[in-house]
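Hi F.,

I've been meaning to write this up properly since the lab meeting, where we talked about keeping a consistent format for the predictions we share between groups. The idea is simple: the sequence comes first, exactly as it goes in, then the structure tokens exactly as they come out, then a line or two of notes. No screenshots and no reformatting. I'm using this chain as the first example so we have something concrete to point to.
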Amino acid sequence: MPTTARGREGGAKPGKRRKSGSLLTHTILRSYKPLHRQERNPETMNRTSLLSPGDRFETGRLYLRLLAPEDAPALLDYRQRNRAEHAPWEPVRGEAFFTAEAHQAAIRGFEDESATDRAYSFGVFHQPDGLLIGTVRLSHIGRGPFQNAYVGYSIDAAYGGRGLMTEALRECLRIAFGPLGLHRVQAAIIPRNARSLRVAEKCGFVRIGLSPRYLNIAGVWEDHILFALTSEDFE
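Output, unedited:
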């Protein structure tokens, strides 16, 4: 678990300030490489998915669904067309990341995680055309007395400013506190990412601290504001 602490605001070097914000935040970051069986925590080995791969969660303008192998081309296209917009808010991505093979492997890893109740990676699909326009991910799920997950989200730049990311995140939280039975969801956002901060706050997240140099984003160790929301406070 990360330690909450006070620290300086922002993590970028002077003279290298980036855009005022993007509808993208993240959880603790991990590779797309799926875990081999011998690497898994024995405590997760008997856990099984609480969602079915075909489940659709409708919101009106959108629907959420676990990403499946057939979504690999759409996920790659989504990441390619948003590469420049998302780059300031993500780890450095090499060219190998933006390939069909990498995204096929990514989704195999997502399926492995959801099958063992470790993480759930949703596509955000626009209604009625079914275009993949975003992602929401619940990861590092802790059971036992914790019942916690971390959430990360992103949306296509062409669909920003319409409240769609807020709509998708609220639906993800309904899934987290409903079918998945979680008690708490946390998020971490770079302080100057104003748009992601607004989305989190509109969904009821409460700031619980600032973690200095929390994640390496675009080659810089960035401070992150830590947020949390419990099932009792979700509306």
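Notes:
DSSP finds five helices and nine strands in the chain.
The helical segments are 72-81, 83-86, 100-115, 164-177, 194-202.

If this format works for you, I'll send the rest the same way.

G.
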